[in-house]
Amino acid sequence: MMPEHERFGVWAEAEGSAGRRVPPQGQPGEAQEAGPAPGRPPGRPTAPRQDTGASGAPSERADRDAAAHWPDLMLPLLRTPTTARPLAGDRAVTGVDEPGPAEVAAVLDLVLLVGELMLACGEAAEDVEAAMLAVARTYRARPCDPQVTFTRVAISYQQGRGGPPVTAERSVHHPAGDYARLAAVFRLVTEITVGGLRVNDAHHRLRAVRRHCRRYPAWALVLSSGLLAGAAAMLVGGRADARAWLVFVSAVVTAMAGDRLSALVGRHDLPNFYRIATAATPAAVVGILMSFNQLHLRGSVVIIGGLYALLPGWPMVAAVQDGLAGFYLTAAARLLEVLYLMAGVVVGVMTVLYVGVNNGADLAAQGVPASSSNPPLQLAAAILLALTFAVLLNTEPGTLPGVLVNSGAGWTTYAVLVDAGGEPIMATGLAAVLVGLSGQLMARYRGSSALPFVTAALGPLLPGSLLYFGLVAFVRGEPETGLSGLGRATATAMALAIGVNLGREVARLFLPAPGVAPAARRRRGRHRR
């Protein structure tokens, strides 16, 4: 029996009187509009643009270039009230009939699959909606309104005047950072918007992306988790002597042991809270044991390295970005997820710290050196941390050089500002703005999402040491100091996410993509949810 998406996904091909086929929607050579035309009153159709040359043939290169940059076209459209959005591809202009019910069903299923994959891979809600809207308008499913929450994607379609509306939705389970799959979906959406795929072909491509997109073997992921903790220990420790390398090796081994324990707990289908709490205990145990020695080994650095390996970096950035974009429900759900994951880390670490501190372990007095204690070593550690973080997020190998450049620039900016006497939280925010702006430029050059270039590059700036010393203060019975440390950690995390979002908006407003005109001024009406 033919699969459902094939039965409903094949476009009807109308035969002309002379036997000529009308090309299906989305194929090259068809006049269509992929997004709103700036400076034009809403609802007014735009005629196909003509070339100014002597031949008089229609020029399509500019339209295709603009369609390839669909995020810049769709974001202004999303921030326009639904009733004020222009209708692309009016029948009086294109001469193409509206799609039938079977075609609409296939398009809506494709749109939901695109949204499901992008949301499950960690993309922000507004960018997921932009991709869904771009695909729907390319295949003439209009007017439509996509809606995204933390675990649900939906789209509503009004079929003709007086016709009943159609609403479809799909649930998203266990969202996690998977940037190779996200990049593949992003490229596929770009190919769709420039008119290169039929609906059933896009279905096959998306299902192939869902099945096969793992870039690294399991052993590389385990090793990356260990090296991430070791790099964080070198970044915080700022030393390169024999004892520092012993601490580095200890951090690597304990993080790998925590990863294996977490995988063992995960085989029993326990919630992520218990997996995170289990993964945090080996670093805390080794850090306590290292404090009972005469070699002056800094066990606190091992624990801080383990914390860096467990901090939920990408959900935190996506949560704040959703909140700034007006997706308050999704932002609240993601922040709650971050809170529970952090609670797992706190439970795993504080349980061991409580036993160690009450038995004479002095971990709070082992201060963290300034950022300029060993700049070359710390810069190398920051780049290694970003590299391993990118591997854990399944970032494509071709994206890794851009991630390393971005992380080096971000950490250098932060270190220079702090050494010049700047406030660390302000320095973190400014470094995040640079990372967000450069990540946007790299993403536009490669035609991909900006998250793979940004999230891992923020790894060295995560507030792991602030979180650790806040926990130690609580264990030692100093709640005021603990609250101050946790408050600064939260402020640092907010500065990271807000800085990234600001860099993105600066790139969109002042550095428009080639072929995309700046958005016209419009009435406010961003829908909130």
Q: Please give the radius of gyration in angstroms.
A: 26 Å
Structure classification: mainly alpha
Total domains, how many?
Answer: 2
Strand order of the largest sheet: 1-2-3
Describe this structure in words.
By secondary structure, the protein is mainly alpha-helical. The chain folds into two domains: 61-211, no CATH class; 218-510, no CATH class. The chain has 20 helices and three strands. The protein has helices at residues 4-7, 61-68, 70-78, 91-94, 101-120, 125-138, 179-193, 199-211, 218-237, 242-266, 272-291, 299-310, 313-324, 328-357, 375-392, 400-419, 424-446, 451-454, 464-475, 479-510; strands at residues 144-149, 152-158, 165-171. Strands 1-2-3 form a three-stranded antiparallel β-sheet, with helices on one face.
Which descriptors would you attach to this protein?
529 residues, elongated, mainly alpha, disordered C terminus, 3-stranded antiparallel sheet, 20 helices
